[in-house]
Amino acid sequence: MLTLCSANRGWSYGLNNTYQWPWGHKNESHNSNNTNDHDGPNKIIVGGSDHWRFGFNYSVWAFQNAPFYVNDVLVFKYDAPNDTVFPHSVYQLPNLWSYLRCDLSRAKMIANATQGDGEGFEFVLKRWLPYYFACGEHGGLHCREGRMKFMVLPLLRRWHY
After folding, report:
1. Quick one: pLDDT at residue 38?
2. What burial class does residue 153 get, using C-beta atoms within 10 Å of its C-beta: 0-12 exposed, 13-18 middle, 19+ buried?
3. Residue 43 confidence (pLDDT)
4. Less Cβ crowding at N or C end of the chain, within 10 Å?
5. Torsion sign, CA atoms 94, 99, 103, 108
6. How buried is 91 (Cβ within 10 angstroms: 0-12 exposed, 13-18 middle, 19+ buried)?
7. What is the pLDDT of residue 160?
8. Residues 6 or more apart from 32 whose CB is under 8 A from it?
9. What's the rounded Cα separation, in Å, for the pair 110 and 124?
10. Three-class DSSP category at 111
11. How far from chain centre, in Å, is Cα 12?
């Protein structure tokens, strides 16, 4: 069971019914990795200019780039494996326990080692539920030691009329 709680420190709910988050960019474009300039779904490059690579802390990246919204598109970019590049992949883990332990036994591969090349692999956050992502290479070593994992809980977008 996942329990989320929050205090109201740093939060405000203004007269225009928009939230201001205590992290990330306030009242600006969703985040620095947002490739859209409108109120529709955002296309977000995972890791920003660092892309999907070993040794980058994606949990911190996700926290700093929140909030994410239902129908936003996560773009995983990584080079195809070669003599100098280790392979990466993207798995969706089924629950928080699997995420915390980097247990890939019930995870679903959503992008293989070559799908992140070029324009990258796109994943749509279709529903309001927690999503857990990790690199599944080397039996979970990239997840555990390389910090290649993160979770997001997309929010419902408040449309402006």
Report:
1. 54
2. middle
3. 97
4. C
5. positive
6. buried
7. 54
8. 25, 48, 65
9. 11
10. strand
11. 25
Question: In which element (H, E) is residue 121 found?
Answer: strand 121-124
Report whether 99 contacts 132 (CB < 8 A): yes
Residue 94 tokens, joined: 């089924």
Task: Please report, for residues 4, 16, 77, 113, 147, the alpha-carbon distance to residue 97 in angstroms, rounded to integers and kept in the order given.
Answer: 15, 38, 26, 25, 16
Is the preceding peptide bond at 67 cis, omega within 30 degrees of 0?
yes
Letter for the amino acid at 82?
N
Q: CA–CA separation, 61 vs 147, rounded Å?
A: 11
In tens digits, what is the pLDDT along the chain, a chain of 161 residues? 444 444 434 443 333 444 444 444 433 334 445 544 456 799 999 999 999 999 999 999 999 999 999 999 999 999 998 888 899 999 999 999 999 999 999 999 999 999 999 999 999 999 999 999 999 999 899 999 999 999 999 999 776 55
- Could you tell me if 141 and 87 are in contact, meaning their C-beta atoms sit under 8 angstroms apart? no
Q: Whole-angstrom Cα distance, residue 74 to residue 116?
A: 12
